[in-house]
């Protein structure tokens, strides 16, 4: 006898609630369809459902996201780096206290004391016919960040040998909920034949029809809820084997919105607005912002960053401030709207020659005009780099390109062989934006502070 088991999933929603009511409407329709046919259906989230760029997530520290998952009748979720390292230890520890679904993440543990009651390495779900699915959760191991927040996170490859064996002994079908990214997912598929299915996220990759590696089917549905995922597992109940497995990711543009969810989101937005109305300062004159020029508020923010981290110098791109401040009260909501990024301050060690190269790269037109997506940045473009502690003299050529002529620190030329402590945003420690920073062997992150916390400090300082 054949049993078809249906898994539906979301990944990397990042609090893009504009698509959520359509997603819930689609799930309700599918649930009704499968109930009529007496077919098992499970709803899964692969992490980064929370993103504090959105006022609802910011005001309620992700608790509303969990309520939305509850209301949509999710069965299992794992956590992403946005849940894991953009919330304080206490906010993550209590995030899923009211969850009606299982939360699985095998490579996360509380550093000191007991783990939260909701945290499990894996979960089992059994159909009415007796077929058992074992669902393992794993999240991206940003070790330096988690340690500063009071969590231990381990490499998934240190755990999988033991965990896959444990789950395989108790389950008919083994499913990995992976917020690790496409490269790790593919490597895991090559190493572990006992994992039947990997539902992935983190790197926002999209497999419209799945990808097969050895015995494992991989699937992922992009980002922001534009796509959702579906997996169909055909299980032979007599032979106890999977006959077929298929995966799809598809757009939900034409799905009707669920009105109950729309009303819930409106209520959450009103609640968030009320929370974020709290004033933090009063301005008697407006503060203007220009992404390609140095502004007073941007310069003061970089001064704050330098002092906060006790660095020799500091640099921040003007694109981190999305808008200026109007005259009058400045509220928490204004700060969040103008600096929504889940980005942390950091300090890196750079040799003098490396520091000069970073300054030169930052003045390149292509760098300033880069439309950056990801790495915590939630703005439009990088914009001009603004410095504190460094004086940079430039000249512009006939083609409009700006070139660095001279760089001094406290009136002295940069010593090419000296090591300097340079403060900036953690964004530049990832990827290849500024290689000298990302390759620095010494990086110190400041957590749980976000850049907007430093912006709040700056606004209050300059208005006192």
From TrEMBL:
Q: Name one GO biological process term.
A: nucleotide catabolic process
Cited Gene3D superfamilies: 3.60.21.10, 5'-Nucleotidase, C-terminal domain
InterPro entries according to UniProt = 5'-Nucleotdase_C, 5'-Nucleotdase_C_sf, 5_nucleotidase/apyrase, Calcineurin-like_PHP, Metallo-depent_PP-like, Pesterase_YunD
Superkingdom of the organism of origin: Bacteria
Q: Which UniProt keywords apply?
A: Hydrolase, Nucleotide-binding, Signal
Q: Which GO terms describe its molecular function?
A: 5'-nucleotidase activity; nucleotide binding; UDP-sugar diphosphatase activity
Q: Which SUPFAM superfamilies match?
A: 5'-nucleotidase (syn. UDP-sugar hydrolase), C-terminal domain, Metallo-dependent phosphatases
Q: What is a single Pfam family found in this protein's UniProt entry?
A: Metallophos
Keyword Membrane in the entry? The reply is no
Residue span(s) of domain 5'-Nucleotidase C-terminal: 290-427
- Respond yes or no to whether keyword Hydrolase is given for this record: yes
Q: Which residues form the Calcineurin-like phosphoesterase domain?
A: 10-205
State the GO CC annotations.
outer membrane-bounded periplasmic space
Describe the family membership recorded for this protein in Swiss-Prot or TrEMBL.
Belongs to the 5'-nucleotidase family.
Name under which the protein is recorded: Metallophosphoesterase
Give the species: Pontibacillus yanchengensis Y32
């Amino acid at each position: 006898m054949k049993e078809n088991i249906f898994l539906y999933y979301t990944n990397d929603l990042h609090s893009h609630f504009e698509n959520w009511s359509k997603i819930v409407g689609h799930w309700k329709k599918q649930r009704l369809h499968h109930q009529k046919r007496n077919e098992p259906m499970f709803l899964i989230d692969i992490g980064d459902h929370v993103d504090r760029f959105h006022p609802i997530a910011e005001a309620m520290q992700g608790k509303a996201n969990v309520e939305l998952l509850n209301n949509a009748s999710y069965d299992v979720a794992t956590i992403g780096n946005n849940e894991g390292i953009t919330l304080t230890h206490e906010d993550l520890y209590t995030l899923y206290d009211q969850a009606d679904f299982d939360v699985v993440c095998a490579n996360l543990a509380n550093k000191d004391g007991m783990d939260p009651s909701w945290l499990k390495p894996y979960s089992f779900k059994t159909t009415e016919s007796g077929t058992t699915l074992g669902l393992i959760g794993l999240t991206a191991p940003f070790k330096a960040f988690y340690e500063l927040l009071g969590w231990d996170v381990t490499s998934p490859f240190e755990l999988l040998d033991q965990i896959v064996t444990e789950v395989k002994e108790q389950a008919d079908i083994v499913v990995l909920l992976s917020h690790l990214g496409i490269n790790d997912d593919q490597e895991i598929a090559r190493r572990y034949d006992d994992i039947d299915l990997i539902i992935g996220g983190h790197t926002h990759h999209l497999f419209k029809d799945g990808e097969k590696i050895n015995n494992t089917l991989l699937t992922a549905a992009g980002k922001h809820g534009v796509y959702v995922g579906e997996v169909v597992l055909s299980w032979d109940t007599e032979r106890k084997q999977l006959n077929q497995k298929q995966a799809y990711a598809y757009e939900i543009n034409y799905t009707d919105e669920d009105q109950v969810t729309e009303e819930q989101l409106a209520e959450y937005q009103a609640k968030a607005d009320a929370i974020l109305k709290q004033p933090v300062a009063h301005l008697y004159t407006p503060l203007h912002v220009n992404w390609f020029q140095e502004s007073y508020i941007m310069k003061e923010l970089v001064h704050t960053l330098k002092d906060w981290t006790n660095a020799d110098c500091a640099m921040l791109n003007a694109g981190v401030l999305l808008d200026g401040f109007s005259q009058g009260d400045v509220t928490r909501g204004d700060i969040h709207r103008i600096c929504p990024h889940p980005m942390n301050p950091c300090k890196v060690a750079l040799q003098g020659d490396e520091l000069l190269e970073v300054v030169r790269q930052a003045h390149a037109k292509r760098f300033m005009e880069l439309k950056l997506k990801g790495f915590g940045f939630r703005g439009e473009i990088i914009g001009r780099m603004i410095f504190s502690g460094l004086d940079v003299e430039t000249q512009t050529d006939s083609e409009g390109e700006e070139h660095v002529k001279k760089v001094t620190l406290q009136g002295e030329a940069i010593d090419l062989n000296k090591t300097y402590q340079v403060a900036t945003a953690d964004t530049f420690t990832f990827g290849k934006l500024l290689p000298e920073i990302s390759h620095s062997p010494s990086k110190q992150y400041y957590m749980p502070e976000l850049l907007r916390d430093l912006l709040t400090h700056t606004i209050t300082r300059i208005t006192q």
